[in-house]
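#onboarding

Welcome to the new folks! Below is a worked example of what a typical request in this channel looks like: someone posts a single protein sequence, and someone else replies with the predicted structure as tokens. Don't worry about understanding the tokens yet, we'll cover that in week two.

Example request:
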Amino acid sequence: MEAKLHNKRPKHLNLFKIRQPLPAVVSILHRISGVLLFFPGIPLMLCGLQMMLGSQQSFEALQDYLRSPMVKLMLLSPLWFFFHHLCAGIRHLFLDLHIGVALPQARAGSKLVVVMGILLTILAGLIIW
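Example response:
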């Protein structure tokens, strides 16, 4: 009997075919955004800091680089990574305090994280343009 059950189990799961609820998607994106903020985020920030503090010429080169519309457009994705990670981290702190653990509250909190991440990114994008 046990051998029959073992043969019917899937050999692998295709995670792209499984529809995750919004709180799970927000949690997964929180982890992904944290990884992307760590690498390549930290090395790029350190490179920019080195250019900023290196010399007057390297500082001006960094300013010219950051004035480019294409670079400003590319900065929107790391900004979203940061703001999503920040909002989702605050949500996880509330969950650790057992606030918003019930399913309707968890769904509302996840929607709030998505909306706030997008709104803060748009606001920061307007500021850098």
